[in-house]
Specification:
The complex is a heterotrimer of chains A (246), B (258) and C (249). Chain A has 246 residues and is mainly beta. Chain A has helices at 203-207, 230-240, and strands at 2-6, 13-18, 23-27, 31-34, 38-45, 51-52, 74-80, 85-89, 97-101, 107-110, 114-117, 122-124, 147-151, 157-161, 166-178, 182-186, 190-193, 214-226. Chain A has a single domain (2-51, 70-240), classed as Mitochondrial biogenesis AIM24 (Double-stranded beta-helix, 4-Layer Sandwich). Chain A contains 2 helices and 18 strands. The N and C termini of chain A lie far apart (44 Å). Chain B has 258 residues and is mainly β. In chain B, the strands form 2 sheets. In chain B, strands 3, 5, 6, 8, 9, 10, 11, 12, 13 and 14 form a 10-stranded antiparallel sheet that branches. In chain B, strands 1-2-7-4 form a 4-stranded antiparallel sheet, with no helix packed on it. Chain C has 249 residues and is mostly beta strands. Chain C is built from 4 helices and 19 strands. In chain C, β1 and β2 (13-17) form a beta hairpin. The N and C termini of chain C lie far apart (51 Å). The chains are: A mainly beta (246), B mainly beta (258), C mainly beta (249). Chains B and C meet through α2, β11, β14 and α3 of B and β4, α1, α2 and α4 of C.
Chain lengths: 246, 258, 249
């Protein structure tokens, strides 16, 4: 799997070249186009339980009912049959793409960012204690995104789509970031609440919905920041759409 | 000073030193411009930066954040003005738009903050010397100094509309930053010029504006069939994209599907 | 008509300058950004009932009524226009008047001179503007079969003059030879007439509307395929997660 990223930074598209018989796991929304010998080899529905990205399709009901905001990511496997093939992949929104080579510790990333991965990469979506990472303050509206952990015993690649430009930050000590802008981070980093006070803002803070999820990254490692917040984008668009009839 | 002096330049802006500014000014850098600009402000000790709620991206440890009402309405200050401001705030909250609520950012020992606008586009800066600038409320990003922010929503009728266009009138002494959706076209108005209201990013206080019906009986959903008429002599800034048009383009995907 | 493309390629805007009085530009109603005050803007022709519903209503009472209705019924005060109606018209009243047009979504804008590229099939969502000498046919057999109903219709474009094509994201051109190409229909902006195509739905798990159009188009023959690097259906699908439902929240 050779990846070349073009049209950077605003309209990035990844051209993935596959050898004969080679496959790539992609998000359902990521495919732009492909050569005619590339087949959608399998579709699967992640139900936020740990499993290999290349595992066989499952018929399990999603853990979250459709009314819940959190949507598990859906993946397809694209395989070049009979000859080498090419696949074009892109994120949902304008922005850059980030290609990560898997390392032993693995990475965590925002679920909105998943574009593609090598078949051996394990994507773990059931992460204890990390579900509240992206939620805004104490609002009951849970975060519509979650963290996914990517690991692989073999060398593998992970392709993530950012909303906006990507800035890699070296964490040496502490970094305070708004989680919506966090694309990915090395698993060795610890993430905790930033403790930047919201509650002490008085009546105004209680009256208005919390609009930030500030978290503190501690330790040594790298964090990739995206310069636009996809969750805020989705919320703004979704709220402005005509109401859906229940 | 134009709001955005480098429309499509500067790939190496990330490595640039902060803009040196006059006394009282805050040093800042626009990074990742022009497609996805972010703003880094070097905040000296005891100085306050007002940031539109939800636009903070990164803070240095030691920076404090508190919510504050950011906007006043025209007229004399006092209890009535506060009540009207609260009413406008609640309206904007109810409609899912950004309320005129800011994060008040301060530090005791100095520190840096990074801001990211909501829309893809560039960031402009304007120093106010007692003059006024009207900025689309969706585009307002931050301000510092003795800048007064007033909500100009026209009338109750427009404030109630889901597709309302709200402008902030910034006046006084200090600086303000605002973000465009897409690129920016500078228009020197001599007489009359017409702009779809949501694409009107900012304009000089010297120009008068008036929102009126447009385009005959069939109203495009984005603007609800209205156009903003600018009159006088002055500069207007038009942005290439608008959130309301994005929503309308997505909403019309329902038609025919039902 | 002269034109200039600005802010390329991320958020392209076209500055169109008319050369004579009475010259017309057809445009998507959402694409009209700004214009000189002499240019007359006429909205798309609608049926009488539709026209009535869409007419901007004035007065505080009407605004309050719209407000209450929109809260109760989950309706827009102004109904969104249909996926493909006839376009709006900009008419110049004097030479050298100019207007700005841009696609509503973030992305590039290309101008295709129909004399050079020949007849095209164009996704209605990709139509931004055209000279009035360009013919747009949205009612031919097969116009509705390519996209899903929500994705728009396929317009048959002919005539002569500039056609402004824009969509979501950058433009990626594929020149087809013998080997063919497969792509998501939501990424198709336009293709030259004469290409053979076949659309097949991709069975997808999960909710309807949460995925892209979920249809793959297979192209064969010789010609050119214009793709956008982003699919608006994917953005819409993501926004759906945050959409409110009518009734009790």
């Amino acid at each position: 799997m050779k990846v070349h990223i073009g049209y950077r930074p605003a309209q990035s598209v990844a051209r993935v070249n596959l050898d004969t018989g080679e496959s790539v796991i992609v998000d359902h929304s990521a495919t732009v186009g492909m050569s005619p010998n590339v087949r959608l080899a399998a579709l699967e529905h992640s139900d936020r339980h740990a499993h290999g990205a290349g595992a066989a399709a499952r018929g399990a009901e999603p853990k979250h009912p459709p009314s819940a905001v959190a949507e598990p990511i859906q993946r397809a496997s694209l395989c070049a049959q009979g000859a080498p093939g090419e696949v074009l992949l892109a994120a949902r929104w304008p922005g850059d793409l980030l290609l990560l080579e898997l390392m032993p510790g693995g990475y965590l990333f925002q679920s909105t960012a998943f574009v593609a991965a090598s078949p051996d990469v394990r994507l773990d979506e059931q992460l204890d204690g990390l579900d509240a990472l992206f939620s805004l303050g104490a609002t009951p509206e849970a975060a519509p995104v979650h963290a996914i952990k990517a690991r692989s015993e073999q060398p593998g690649q992970l392709l993530l789509g950012a909303c906006g430009a990507i800035e890699p930050l070296e964490c040496e000590g502490e970094l305070i970031l708004e989680m919506g802008h966090v694309l990915a981070w090395e698993a060795a980093l610890e993430v905790r609440d930033a403790g930047v006070d919201v509650a002490r803002g008085g009546w105004l803070a209680r009256l208005t919905p919390a609009r930030r999820a500030l978290r503190c990254f501690a330790g040594r490692g790298r964090v990739w920041v995206q310069t636009r917040d996809p969750v805020a984008l989705g919320r703004r668009l979704g709220r402005a759409l005509p109401r859906r009839h229940a | 000073m134009p709001p955005n002096a480098q429309p499509h330049a500067d790939p190496a802006s990330a490595a640039r030193a902060p803009e040196p500014l006059a006394r009282d000014g805050l040093a800042y850098v626009v990074e990742h411009g022009p497609s996805f600009a972010t703003l880094r402000v070097e905040l000296p000790a005891e100085r306050t930066l007002f940031v539109q709620a939800g636009r903070l991206m990164r803070l240095e440890p030691g920076v404090e954040v508190r919510p504050a009402l950011n906007a006043a309405v025209p007229g004399p200050p006092g209890l009535w003005a506060k009540l009207v401001a609260l009413f406008v705030t609640l309206l904007r909250v109810a409609f899912g738009g950004d309320p005129p609520i800011a994060d008040r950012v301060r530090t005791a020992r100095g520190g840096r903050v990074w801001l990211a606008p909501a829309s893809p586009g560039s960031i402009g800066h304007r120093r106010l010397h007692g003059d006024a600038l009207f900025v689309n409320a969706d585009a307002y990003l931050a301000h510092a100094g003795r800048v007064e922010v007033r909500v100009r929503f026209g009338n109750v009728q427009r404030a109630l509309s889901r597709v309302a266009v709200v402008f902030f009138e910034l006046s006084g002494f200090g600086e303000a930053w605002f973000a465009s959706h897409g690129g920016v076209q500078r228009i020197d108005v001599r007489g009359t010029f017409l702009v779809e209201p949501h694409h009107l990013l900012a304009f000089d206080g010297a120009l008068t504006f008036h929102i009126r019906p447009d385009a005959g009986p069939a109203a495009p959903a984005g603007a609800a069939g209205r156009v903003c008429e600018l009159r006088g002599r002055g500069r207007a800034y038009v942005q290439g994209r608008a959130g309301a048009a994005v929503v309308a383009a997505l909403a019309r995907r329902d038609q025919g599907a039902a | 008509m002269r034109y200039e493309l600005l802010d390329r390629p991320s958020y392209t805007v076209a500055r169109v300058e008319f050369e004579r009085s009475g010259e017309r530009l057809l445009a998507d109603p959402l694409a009209v950004v700004a214009r000189e005050s002499g240019i007359h803007h006429r909205g798309p022709a609608l049926g009488a009932a539709q026209g009535d519903a869409a007419r901007p209503r004035t007065g505080l009472a009407a605004a309050l009524d719209d407000f209450v209705r929109s809260r109760r019924a989950g309706m827009h005060a102004a109904p969104p226009p249909p996926a493909w109606a006839s376009p709006a018209t900009l008419t110049a009243s004097a030479p050298r008047e100019h207007a700005f047009v841009a696609p509503p979504l973030e992305g590039d804008l290309a101008v295709l001179e129909l004399e050079e590229v020949g007849s095209l099939l164009l996704g209605s969502h990709a139509f931004v503007a055209s000279a009035s000498t360009v013919t747009l046919d949205g009612a031919w057999t097969g116009s509705a079969a390519f996209f899903t109903p929500a994705g728009g219709t396929l317009l048959r474009v002919g005539g002569s003059g500039p056609l402004f094509v824009g969509g979501y994201g950058g433009h990626h051109i594929i020149d087809l030879d013998a080997s063919g190409y497969t792509c998501e229909v939501g990424h198709v902006l336009a293709f030259t007439q004469g290409l053979d195509y076949d659309v097949a739905p991709v069975a997808r798990l999960g909710r309807a509307g949460s995925a892209g159009d979920g249809r793959l188009a297979r192209f064969e023959g010789r010609g050119r395929l214009y793709l956008s690097t982003r699919d608006p259906a994917n953005l819409r699908g993501f926004a759906e997660r945050f959409r409110r439902t009518s009734g009790r929240d």
